[in-house]
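URGENT: need a sanity check before tomorrow's submission.

F., can you look over the Plant intracellular Ras-group-related LRR protein 8 record below? I want to be sure the sequence and structure line up before it goes out.
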Amino acid sequence: MEKEGTSDTDNRSTITVNVKFSGRSMPVEISDESTVEHLKSLLQPLTNVLPRSQKLIFKGKVLVDEMTLKSSRVVNGAKIMLMRSQVLHQEDIPNVLEDPASKERNNIQNTSVSCEAVAGVRVEVDKLSHRVSVIEEAMQRGTKVEDKEFVVLTESFMIQLLKLDSIEADGEARAERRKEVHRIQSIVDMLDNFKARNSKL
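Structure tokens as predicted:
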């Protein structure tokens, strides 16, 4: 009996998602604690599309690589659309005639641009976070907040996630992007909690 209970626990987080691509639907079994990036790696042999060229869309939103399926609200039976990105990545461009020094300068420049892009998102998230604080203060005073405020704010944070997802980043820039993704994820979870509390005011 104990063994069966352990098995149920182990299988509890395994879900099946249906990924649509090129007119066909592909069921994929995966843990809901897996990242979107891991799901893309599983889809590569099924679609012949490299992970960096995949855009996974769920309920009208592009899923972010660093987020887990669970935090992205992807549940068992979810339908996800796969689109092939037409963006040409720098690593796809031949650099046969490029000398090492020039390549290093380009890498430094690209990292700088990526860091600036992430910093720009961070500024926007700071502004949105202030609005979340205002809502929290209002609720602490016993003031009920309109539901649309939570919807608008959540959508605004999702837009920032999309911006982060569009930033090509490696090294330091990638670490900064991941940090900002987790920050947004935490704030959105906080908003969900606030919304639940607000409904009881």
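My own read: The chain has two domains: 14-84, 112-199. Residues 1-9, 88-97 have pLDDT under 50 and may be disordered. If you see anything odd, call me.
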